[in-house]
Write the structure tokens for this entry.
Amino acid sequence: MKRRIKASVTVEASFVVTMAIISVGIMLSLWIFKFQECWYTQMANECLLTGSNWGILKEDSYIHSVKSKWDSVKEENYLKPKNLTAQIDGTDDRISMTISGSTPILGMEPLKLSVEQKIGIVRPVKFIRIVQAGKEVLKDESGVSE
């Protein structure tokens, strides 16, 4: 008479399913973090570009223009990180913006979000005058007329 041995894989299946669910949760949390990083990079670029252009048009402070744009767009993202802050610095030639925050992942140590963007201010009239002056200098030096 043959003896039959019945085995069960319940313990192994419960372990595998639990690990799969935890892995999916971690991957979704990392996806949210990456989404936030991309979104805030785009918003920093938009704020800097818009702020620098409006600063020239309104003859206003660049930093004030960037800050007002940031205040209008920072609430648009529905996946906001915690402790969201923005620091805006600038000179007459360059503006920089640093956005930082933290994103918790399944109750573990939160990931730190930090986005830094810089943009140079281009004044079209000044740039065109420099190019025209350069052409004049080259024309005078070469003695060739156009």
